[in-house]
Design brief:
The chain has one domain: Rossmann fold, CATH 3.40.50.150. The protein is built from six helices and seven strands. With 216 residues, it is of the alpha/beta class. The chain is globular, with a radius of gyration of 16 Å. Strands 3-2-1-4-5-7-6 form a seven-stranded mixed β-sheet. Helix 4 links the parallel strand 2 and strand 3.
Length: 216
Amino acid sequence: MTLTHNQARDFYDRFGKRQDYQFYAAVPSSKLMARANFEEAESIFEFGCGTGRFAAELLADVTSDRTTYTGTDISGTMVALTQQRLKQYGARAQVNISDGKPLIREENEAFDRFVCNYVLDLLDTDAIGTVLNEAYRILKPNGLICLISLTHGNSVPARLVETIWTWLYRIKASLVGGCRPIRLGEFVGSPNWRVEYLHSVSSFGITSEVLVAKRL
């Protein structure tokens, strides 16, 4: 069973900056940065900004000096960490706390990139669908949705790690941060999206899926 909004908020408020040490996320994040043409982006929205590490790397090393960033998170701790990390960018970077609902308080067709890293695997199926519908609504035509999630293992060691992870999740979801393996391709497809890149990568035995799709 997925964590409730309050359970997820409380967990990540406690977890805080330790999220930066999720060693398995580095390789998938680098692949997403390389495949989503962020250097062409004028406006980026991130659903679940965490500590702001991904946003900071984007703004420092990938995007242009004119790119704006808007992030949101359910955790007040994470919002504060991201605001501190991005304060040098002034008005270019806005970070807001979420009420925990999958609906997004942004205008239609306001962004050309929608980022969501290791968040959809926290949500139940209905909430995933709502987030993707909201991504479609706030993205400009031909904008890109840019996702990373835990997924199923693609090797014997990775499947072993997945089995242990799933066992812990079933005992108590908070033991693994509320995340479980999903397949992004089962949620993102036509008629709303055209998948541009879909790739699984294992790092330290933990398998993640990276997906980039264009809004049609």
